[in-house]
Design goal:
The structure holds two protein chains of two kinds. Chain A is an all-alpha fold. Chain A has nine helices and one strand; from the N terminus they run H-H-H-H-H-H-H-H-H-E. In chain A, helix 1 packs antiparallel against helix 4 (111-133) and helix 2 runs antiparallel to helix 3 (87-108). In chain A, 49% of the residues are buried. The model of chain A has no long low-confidence stretch (mean pLDDT 93). Chain A is 68% helix and 1% strand. Chain B is built from seven helices and ten strands. Chain B has helices at 18-27, 65-69, 95-99, 121-126, 142-150, 164-168, 185-192, and strands at residues 4-9, 36-45, 48-57, 75-77, 83-85, 106-107, 135-136, 174-178, 194-196, 208-211. The mean pLDDT of chain B is 95. The longest helix of chain B is centred in the N-terminal third of the chain and has 10 residues, at 18-27. Classes of the chains: A mainly alpha, B alpha+beta. At the A-B interface, helix 3 and strand 1 of A face strand 2, strand 3, helix 2, helix 3 and helix 7 of B.
Chain lengths: 287, 215
Amino acid sequence: MINEKFARFGTVHQTSWDGRAAGNFICGGAGAALLAIAVLTSWPTAPDWRLLVLALALIGAGLAFVWTEIGRPWRAFNVLFHPQTSWMTREAFVAGLIAVLVFATIATGMAATAYAAALAGLLFLYCQGRILRAAKGIPAWREPSIVRLIVSTGLVEGLALLILADLAIGAARPNMPAALLLLAVLRFGTWWRYRSRMLGSDAPRSTRTTLAVVHRALLAGTALPVLACGAAIAVPGAAAAGSAVAALSALGAGWYFKYLLITRAAQVQGYALGNKLRRGHPLAAQR
Amino acid sequence: MTRYVMVADLNRCVGCQTCTAACRHTNATPPGVQWRKVLDIEMGEYPNVDRLFMPVGCQHCSDPPCMEVCPSTATGQRKDGIVTIDYDICIGCSYCAVACPYQARYKVEEARFAYGDTPTENEAIRFDAGRIGVAQKCTFCADRVDAGLAMGLTPGVDPDATPACANACIANALTFGDLEDPNSKVSELLTENTWFRMHEELGTDPGFFYLWNEK
């Protein structure tokens, strides 16, 4: 029963994209941002090759997730046919470019190719945001502020992965926790904007419920890094542990957000009666 | 120029689903896939309630978001406005399905038939393995339209050149025709009645018009 005559109805959950699609946004976004941030923080030289391989592996894993989801996997290269308008095609091209540039950097050690790879990584992240924005059938994805949210979330994940990788190889850098804190706060700001826009729309109850869960997760994923980074900066002996906790909580919150965004928050547009009842031939004005 | 559109008269539709059945018979769509379906809508709060039936499906938008996002160019648009899918190119990524605001697209991963594993005679004749694993949707019976035109018939006037759903409608609620032709039946209906289009605010310029006399 529709209580408001022109309200949307039939807003069921989309079943076209599942956790595998979420895997592309999770792995691809984190890998692309790791690439960009690793290059930025190793300026003016090229970063450790292991970081480049990790970033490329994550992007590859994301694309592999998508490959398992498509109905005709052996036609996968047809994804490259429509760069004129499709952000999915553009993402695929950028992924190929990243692979070439990363291999070139590893082979030659040239910083210039690493810089180009970093720019391509940022572009990949932007493509992911635009892929969601172009999905007009899903109100939670087509919201314009999703692009900034996807980019900022990716950047937090990339930096968190860099911190964890640095800790793993015993090469922790002192300014990283502060940078993570800054990016986590920035991410929460973009989330706040997105959430406000969604709550101000006619989003169905199930989407609102999921957004509430995400809100708590991102709140925790911001507060914990703030506290842990604060401890890492204030107490020198707790630097490593604090950085690790901050990075893990920021990373987990971001990945959880993306998983829920793709799999749980995505209700379809549904149907509606048009609220602009008109009379006269639609082309009358053109004649 | 030609732009084929569908006009659905909500004042006439009785929700009999004959259009749905005709579509399924003509296109042999598997269970769960309805290129043309009719929604049964109840509105309002007791005692001020209303009920209407609303045929839906691909709206053959002139600015289709499914075509814009399609990474393989499988989704295309003919000069007559009909939005098509090339099953031989489609990779089955379902991006078009999430881009379509009308829930018009389906993807079927394996052959399914109405009564178990054995297809009915009609399903056996019309089964298309090329539709497995790729996107599918209403075609406005483009093959019927083309075959009819080749015989010199007029879509929307001659049944052999008209989509199966419009042919089958027992209440004359579905009318197909050329919007660009001022003398076509669809042009007459839209000129003489009040109408709306679904989700116009999304800028898709849908080719599906609903006649409705709001009470």
